[in-house]
Design brief:
The protein is α/β, with parallel strands linked by helices and 421 residues long. The chain has 2 domains: 64-328, Collagenase (Catalytic Domain) (3-Layer(aba) Sandwich), CATH 3.40.390; 345-420, Immunoglobulins (Immunoglobulin-like). It is built from 6 helices and 19 strands. Strands 7, 8, 9, 10, 11 and 12 form a 6-stranded mixed β-sheet that branches. A 4-stranded antiparallel β-sheet has the order 16-15-18-19, with no helix packed on it. A hairpin with a 5-residue loop joins strand 15 and strand 16. The structure holds zinc ion (ZN). The site of zinc ion has 6 residues, from helix 5.
Length: 421
């Protein structure tokens, strides 16, 4: 049996006044990727997390996974997300809006739709992956009740619960995970030692602690997360990469990085973290140009742009083997109400939708119904009225790919259905 020690990932935040020897970047860890924000407490940060970071773990390479064929390259996966905000000071209790900006970033990044894609150097453009993961804030909680996908817990811990076991347990001042088989749990909280985020790798750690943790100062793109270089939500993108088994581009051990791989064939071996950097064009640390704009580096948020096709394969393998429950979760389905009369139904013709959404409410009476179209991050995109029992067409040509919820209501009756474009 082969054991490998995982390292801590180090992020430098704020103005880099420290010159960091690359050797300082090889901190070891087990469960998570710590993106460390360097500052005055740099040494303290590692000292505080030594217990969590020095544990040996079994190596899990992509080769050990046996994809079950549940999802394929062409299938879009809708991943219900619950965000647990665990806060002490009111500043840490970030707004719903800030949380939505993070979901939006995830959807842009995992679908190759972000603004920075155009900056990818020519040699890597063919490797850009549309991972086809669509993240949505849960609309149904584990008990089947309606939810906005956000929990809020005030804790008495003022030092920061990020990176602690207690964060994952309500009894210890944090918040219990929602069933990790059905939801991607994201805890947003304060970290002591200026750590940016952590993630549980597939098959590692207790079930109740599966998920991602992100520093409230680096979550989303507004509110408390506006300080460059980690102000564009890429800490969470990076951590979710780990959650689906991606390694850093320099592989498991930067000491042998030019010879050791990250388990992905189309990400060239690299010996540079690009911490606090934003290169342009070709940059080298081994023999081939580095994919410095890949999300699994430490490059500035503004300069990250892509996952590779090989990374997508590895994430799909991890999903199929370790997190298959997410594929069939109903966490983003709208909760039906008992008001729905049996004779009423909302019928959609063609789903996934192409350039036109065609739908009809079947009802016993031809009354006027209200229409609301909601996108994946809860924004209302379209409002209207239409009579029952007639076919209607709504243009979807200009709409971005993703998940939508079509809601039709009339006099207390509520019908809804999920639509995919
Ligand atoms: Zn990392």
């Amino acid at each position: 049996m082969f054991y490998r020690i995982r390292k801590v990932s180090v992020h430098q935040l704020f103005v880099p006044t420290l010159s960091i020897s690359p050797k300082l970047l090889f901190m070891k860890k087990s469960l998570s990727c710590f993106t460390i924000v360097l500052g005055l407490s740099f040494a303290n940060a590692f000292a505080q997390h030594t217990g969590r970071c020095m544990v040996q773990k079994q190596n899990a390479s992509a080769n050990t996974y046996q994809p079950k064929g549940i999802i394929t390259d062409r299938a879009m996966v809708v991943i219900p997300v619950v965000v647990h905000v665990v806060w002490n000071s009111s500043e840490e209790n970030i707004s719903d809006e800030q949380i939505r900006t993070q979901i939006e970033v995830l959807n842009l990044d995992f679908n190759a739709e972000n603004e920075q894609i155009g900056n990818v150097p020519l040699i890597f453009q063919g490797a850009i992956a549309d991972v086809d993961f669509e993240f949505c804030l849960a609309s149904k909680d584990p008990e089947g009740n309606t939810t906005n996908g956000i929990t809020r817990t005030q804790t008495s811990n003022s030092l920061g619960m990020g990176g602690t076991t207690a964060l994952h347990y309500t009894e210890q001042g944090g918040h219990d995970a929602w069933n990790p088989d059905k939801y991607l749990n994201i805890w947003v909280t304060k970290f002591s030692g200026n750590i940016g985020g952590t993630a549980s790798f597939p098959g590692e750690g207790p079930t109740d602690e599966q998920g991602v943790e992100v520093n409230y100062k680096q979550f989303g793109t507004t509110g408390t997360a506006t300080a460059p270089p980690y102000h564009l939500g890429r800490t969470c993108t990076h951590e979710i990469g780990h959650y689906f088994n991606l390694e850093h581009l320099w592989g498991p051990n930067i000491n042998s990085c030019c010879n050791e791989d990250d388990g992905v064939s189309d990400t060239p071996n690299s010996c540079e973290t690009y911490i606090n950097q934003c290169p342009t064009g070709n940059a080298f640390s081994c023999t081939q140009p580095d994919m410095w704009m890949n999300f699994m580096n430490y490059t500035d948020d503004a300069c990250m742009a892509m996952f590779s096709k090989g990374q997508k394969e590895r994430m799909l393998a991890a999903m199929n083997s370790f997190r298959p429950g997410l594929l069939n979760s109903d966490g983003c389905e709208t909760v039906p109400t008992h008001e729905i009369a049996e004779q009423n139904s909302l019928e959609v013709f063609g789903n996934p939708v192409g350039n036109e959404l065609r739908f009809k409410v079947n009802a016993s009476r031809t009354a006027q119904w209200e229409l609301v179209l909601i996108n994946a991050i809860g924004q209302v995109e379209q409002l209207g009225q239409f009579p029952a029992n007639q076919l209607f067409t709504l243009s979807f040509q200009a709409k971005t790919s993703g998940i939508y919820t079509l809601v039709a209501s009339q006099n207390g009756r509520l019908l809804s259905t999920r639509i995919v474009k």
